[in-house]
Design goal:
heterodimer; A: 267 residues; alpha+beta; Thiol Ester Dehydrase, Chain A; 13-stranded antiparallel sheet; 13 strands; B: 278 residues; globular; disordered N terminus
């Protein structure tokens, strides 16, 4: 299996054109660099790459970095935190992930995102915490050094949110907004689990419904359980206009909660 | 912070962060818990918003008391803490209501809602992640009866800060524009493992970000939003911050704060980002 086949099979990141490669910085720990273009389909209300897409890029960079750090085991993301520095981007967005801490049962990576088209202006910083686990039988392992080209970008009419079929639904009692996303092959990873990037995008979409005109800036995203069946429903409770408390539920699996997030909005 | 923790080094001493905050907690058999700290001026910002450090300590203490029974006979290590406060004058107290969002084989995730007392107005949100670890021999004996409601406080008669909480902690701003802050490590901030309380890191990160962002934003700012990842224990001290401004405007800003233990070869203990508002 080539590196490209490995990543294409593994990653929802191809939707944002995520290109990744491994760097040897002499530290002995893996470093992953990469980029993604800022095309119209992924632009948010701030003018640049939407925060859901930035989270997808951060998850891809940090996840691959963390996975390589714990080989022959692999990782599953447990917590992703993003602080956005600016919302207007020229693109492409360039990222670099490095290991902050590698423990027996997990790894913490830091991801820096910069705007390649705007003199490397800081776009944001993220921290991804991942749990180490024995990889599922048959999981492909990447050839080293990793060098991944996502291939041609998928054709998208409208926004990526439209392409994923994310749509507003009536929120249950106690919530201010809700959106749904069908779970198709396109949003699953090879183990049938809804990808972290798709999770981030549906959460951002729900917050956009709850606070029209506002832009999600900072996000804390806890991955609680795998989402498999779908549809996935993101439900928002707004705490003032500044914060949103978001739960993601797998309505096809007894409504179990698969993710919890706190978002900060501006505007 | 269980009442049944052994007095192996006299923990907590008579003057201790958790005592002076006058923190009170109630744990219930259904796994939910509530904790309170009174909102005196010593634990507020100049504008009256609850201090980030005080509320971080409240959340951290509440979370520990909830996560341990969820993993027994194993033990926990705090992995991360996030806190999202609404700015504005505090009420008489801040109430934290916690529930377990996930208790798995390797991690426990808690969610905490924060309210003003007595208005019951929302004050914010918090989350915590704990890694489940094997119980070390030196871990405190934990014997709280989880089948009944337990209400407890560490406050003693006379507990309470005499000056601002940051003075009580001994926080010293070394270089405000660069966000360099130091915290000496003494018994006042140690937990039962003789490492710095998780909540104290919130105070350090908040103070460092406020110092740097007040300069960068051009107006006084107060810390309201914290993303904190615990990497290593702080044991020797002083703790020292390195701060990088991520964004700034006249209305708000955000900064990254790295906290090292200068007495342990600048060991990186904590990675935080903090958002502040004017």
């Amino acid at each position: 299996m080539s590196a490209n086949e490995f990543e294409r099979a593994r990653s929802f990141g191809r939707y944002i054109g995520m290109t990744l490669w491994e760097v040897d910085d002499g530290s002995g720990s893996p470093v992953i660099e990469g980029f993604a273009p800022v095309r119209d389909a992924v632009r948010g209300p701030g003018g640049g790459m939407a925060t859901g897409a930035l989270l997808t890029l951060a998850d891809g960079l940090g996840g691959l970095c963390g996975g390589l750090a714990v080989l022959p085991r692999w990782v599953v993301s447990t917590n992703l935190m993003l602080r956005v520095a600016r919302l207007d981007h020229v693109g492409p967005i360039r990222g670099r992930a490095r290991v902050l801490r590698r423990g027996r049962n997990g790894v913490v990576t830091q991801i820096e995102l910069r705007d390649d088209g705007n003199a490397d202006a800081l776009v944001g910083e993220a921290v991804l915490t991942s749990a180490a686990l024995d990889p599922p039988e048959g999981m492909p392992m990447p050839p080293r050094p990793v060098d991944i080209d996502p291939g041609p970008l998928p054709e998208i009419e409208g926004t990526l949110r439209d392409a994923l079929g994310i749509h507003e639904v009536d929120p249950p009692d106690g919530y201010d907004a809700a959106v749904r996303m069908e779970v198709t092959h396109e949003v699953r990873n090879p183990w049938g689990i809804v990808h972290g990037g798709a999770t981030a995008m549906v959460i951002e979409a729900a917050v956009a419904v709850a606070t029209p005109g506002a832009v999600v800036t900072d996000t804390v995203l806890h991955f609680l359980q795998p989402g498999r069946a779908g549809p996935m429903e993101a439900r928002v409770r707004s705490i003032d206009r500044r914060y949103g408390s978001v739960g993601l539920y797998d309505t096809g699996a007894g409504g179990r909660r698969t993710a919890a997030a706190v978002t900060t909005t501006a505007g | 912070m269980s009442e049944s923790e052994p007095d192996n080094w006299g923990y907590p001493p008579e003057r201790h962060l958790l005592r002076d905050l006058r923190l009170e907690a109630e744990h219930r058999p259904d796994g939910t818990s509530t904790a309170w700290i009174p909102m005196t001026p010593e634990v507020q910002t100049p504008k009256g918003t609850p201090s980030l450090g005080a509320v971080t300590t409240l959340v951290d203490a509440l979370g520990g008391g909830m996560a341990i029974p969820a993993v027994l006979p194993n033990w926990i290590a705090t992995a991360d803490l996030t806190l999202h406060l609404l700015p504005g004058p505090a009420g008489e107290a801040v109430e934290a209501r916690g529930q377990v969002a996930r208790a798995g084989r390797t991690t426990v995730v808690l969610e905490v809602e924060l309210f003003d007392v007595p208005s019951d107005a929302p004050r914010g949100l918090a989350t915590m992640t704990f890694s489940v670890i094997e119980r070390a021999v030196e871990a405190p004996v934990w014997e709280r009866d989880t089948s009944t409601v337990t209400r407890m406080t560490m406050a003693l008669p006379g507990s309470g800060f005499e000056g601002h909480m940051h003075e009580g902690l001994g926080l010293e701003v070394i270089d405000a524009p660069r966000g360099v802050v130091e915290l000496p490590i003494g018994d006042f901030v140690l937990n039962s493992f003789r490492a710095v309380q998780g909540g104290a890191f919130g105070a350090v990160a908040g103070a460092a970000a406020e110092a740097a962002l007040t300069e960068a934003c051009g107006v006084p700012v107060e810390a309201v939003d914290l993303h904190l990842t615990y990497l290593e224990l702080g044991r020797i001290g002083p703790l020292r911050t390195a701060t990088t401004v991520l964004r700034s405007s006249p209305s708000e800003g955000a900064a990254r704060v790295e906290i090292v233990d200068t007495g342990a070869d600048d060991l990186l203990t904590t990675w935080a980002t903090v958002a502040c508002v004017a």
